[in-house]
Amino acid sequence: MHFDFTPEEERFRAEVRAFLDENLPPEGQRDAAFQVEWQRKVRARGWVGFSWPKQVGGGGASIAEQVILKEEMALRKAPPLGSCFMGLAWVGPALIEFGSEAQKARFIPDILDGKYQWCTGYSEPSSGSDLASLQCRALREGDHYVVDGQKIWTSIAMWSKWMILLVRTDFRTESKHEGITCLLVEMATPGITVRPIRNMSGGAMFAEVFFDGVKVPVENRLGAEGEGWRVTVSALAHERSGIAEVTGLQRSLESIKGLARRCLRGGGPASEDPAIRRRVARADTRIEAMRLNGLRALTKQLRGEPLGSETSVNKLHRANLEVELGELALEIEGSRGALAAGSDVVPDAGYWQRFALSWPEVVIGGGTPNIQRNIIAERILGLPKD
Amino acid sequence: MDFGFSEEQELLRAELRKFLAEHAPSAELRRIAETPEGFSRALWKQMAELGWLGLTVPEAYGGAGLGFVDWVVLLEETGRALLPSPLVSSALCAAALRGGSEAQRALWLPRLADGSAIGSVAILEASDHLAPEGVALAGRREGDGFVLSGEKLFVGDAGAADLFAVAFRTGDAPESISLALVERSAPGVAAEDLPGIDLTKRSGRLRLDGVRVPRAALLGEAGAAWPAVARLLDLGAFAAAAEAAGAAEAALQLTVSYAQQRIQFGSPIGRFQGVKHPLAEMYVDVESWKSLVYYAAWALDAGHPDAPLAVSRAKAYASEAFARIGIDCVQLHGGIGYTWEYDAQLFLKRSKWVRPAFGDADFHYQRVAALGEL
Predict the structure, then answer these.
(1) Candidate from A1, A278, A293 with C-beta closest to B362
(2) Which among A290, A302, A313 has the least Cβ separation from residue B1?
(3) Which residues span the domain enclosing B360?
(4) Count of domains in chain B?
(5) B224 - beta bridge partners?
(6) Partner B, chain A 292-351, Cβ-Cβ below 8 Å
(7) Is any Cβ of chain B less than 8 angstroms from the Cβ of A135?
(8) Which CATH number belongs to the domain containing residue B266 in this structure?
(9) Which segments of chain A belong to CATH 2.40.110.10?
(10) Which residue in A20, A119, A167, A277 is a FRET match for B125, CA 20 to 30 A apart?
(11) DSSP of A254-272, one letter per residue?
């Protein structure tokens, strides 16, 4: 058991640090021009799609190098590596595994360069946690498919140029996992209507997307017809290690400690209230457990052992923590916790109110906590499926 | 980077698991736990011969000279088996000897390693206060030593121990604490176990009535032992969390296999989310506190400054989560879980022993807050 990296890996860490010293201004000074420059520079270094094979333009990095890069970026609160978020998380990995050479050449460079956004057309009004029951249909007509149906909870649909879409091409299969096909759809195609949905924090990040006789060329099918479920599940397996999430939670907790020192509670600083202190420590302990769980999973990868459903454990921790940190912050604020942004009375300009109203984005998106519990119980503990 | 066990450590684990399954299955551990001594001398001897009692004792004193990461493997397995044994108490006494003289180490460490002597540590008193102020037992100066009269409580394996490392007060300043070796056979010493919820863990009272502690019996300097005592408390908390991880994992496995077999409403009850989800939560907790325990072991071995923080995180998590797991283990079994014959109750009772041992969840969370500069 040790936490050392090889001299070669440490050299890479030094290289990343030197790059950050030179190219990353303090947080307050990162304007739009910087963001553009940043994406160009990290792209030139091969750090966008760092884990992807070099043949497709990725970084071909080892697991240790990926960890080092993520750690260093997170420590310095650097902007994301690459701006095509869904493309990097979902589309690229699926293209690498299932895409034709023509599709890879057409889409991967643009994803790496962040030329435009992608969105993911997965959930439907009647198919959320039970995604494989999806009903949005595509019928083949000559050299194209005609898509009819609806998607929902589609993040950033209104700002996306392309969508990776799951449709049903065969309604007569025995298993609901068969008969699903994956299509790449240009959002400007006639027949597509995007209707943003306002969420409880007042903003709109996701949307409903309606398809009415939308024609998609067959060449934009990803993988074989009926193979769509495998394409999706495989992309799901390209899970992030959770390092960035842990760092984000650590930072939030540090800020909450600061908040507790500034807020009065019962005549003294909230930071001196033993009940508050216990909750801060409890959150700290769970964040540390997440960090260490991640390192155990990473060790398995480094040893070449297959990863199981370990990430579900940290997803549950994260879900609990995202909710708990928001609740803790508002309780620390006392009566001010019920205010919203817009007065000089609310602490931190209402940051914690927004925080406490935005957890569903990460807690529900990508699988609710109960779905994670099912995954752990069935895939790890071997309990019978529902 | 390698945050896992080595092949040797995995071999040790396999060997331990096989040995304990063979020699301390449920029926046998229940029999052992109900004997007056509360542990098996025969098993104790075998474990000594296999090198497990002296795992962390330096080789120069007859031990295996291994570290806390190795010790975790041992503790997870004795915890999994709910083995009744003074193993942890004796190892803590050996750890107390680290601050002793060469003569003390040469006399006692080989005997603790080969099992011919059983040790323990006596720190807490009636105030149940894990702080220098909690040590009120005053040493009265006599010649070059002290005389002790009073009572120590919650002393691990008090009934079995031959040797105690006793903390006592030698000045008015809060941290004027001394630590000395007291033999059970010395005049004025009486030690007994008190009845406990968990029959597989013994702890009790050490009575001292005019017990002479010569200078040669002191571990380190008089009045300067609080750091050593604090370290013993950390090691005790660490050991409790490590044993609890093994026990909780066994409780989870017991409940999972029951949920796979028990048929109600025409289906194994493990199919129902009301059963499935608490089991998933148990898994999340066990894996997470294992991670915290492993890191604490590494930090203790490495002498990392974060070791006390790492220990407190592990013990806080263990105390809180194991209490829940003990209850869920019984509850998810239904009526059978409430019976004496079925093992679920043994895990619930162990969780009651673990919860306060060397600091409960609140004690350790408060410490995490303080160490985290809140």
Answers:
(1) A278
(2) A302
(3) 227-371
(4) 3
(5) B177
(6) 292-293, 295-296, 298-300, 302-303, 313, 316-317
(7) no
(8) 1.20.140.10
(9) 116-227
(10) A277
(11) HHHHHHHHHSEETTEEGGG
Kindly list the residues from chain B whose CB atom is less than 8 angstroms away from the CB atom of residue A269. none
Flag whether the pTM goes above 0.90: yes
CB atoms closer than 10 angstroms to residue A296? 17
Q: Across the interface, do A381 and B256 touch by the CB < 8 Å criterion?
A: yes
Select from B285, B275, B281, B277 the least CA-distant residue to B245: B285
Least Cα separation, residue B126 to chain A (angstroms): 24
Q: Which residue has the tokens 């044993």?
A: B243
pLDDT tens digits for B144-200? 999 999 999 999 999 999 999 999 999 999 999 999 999 999 999 999 999 999 999
Cα–Cα distance, B86 to A299 (Å, whole number):
34
Q: Is A300 in Cβ contact with B298 (below 8 Å)?
A: no
Distance CA B352, CA B345 (A): 11
CA distance A312 to chain B (A): 9
| CATH code assigned to A116-227 | 2.40.110.10
All residues at 6 or more sequence positions from B161 whose CB lies less than 8 Å from its CB, including other chains: B86, B89, B90, B93, B118, B119, B120, B155, B184, B191
| pLDDT given at position A104 | 97
Residue (of B333, B291, B329) closest to B313 by Cα position: B291
Distance in angstroms (rounded) separating the CA atoms of residues A92 and A86 = 9
Rg of chain B over Cα atoms, rounded to whole angstroms, equals 21
Q: Kindly state whether A277 is in contact with chain B, defined as any CB-CB distance less than 8 angstroms.
A: yes
Mean pLDDT score, A146-165: 97
The pLDDT of residue A239 is 56
Nearest to B44 by CA among B85, B74, B14: B85
The runs of H, that is alpha helices, within B164-270 are 226-261
Residues of B in contact with A7 (CB under 8 A): none
The catalytic site residues of A sit at 239
- Half-sphere exposure in the Cβ direction for B42 (13 Å, CA): 5
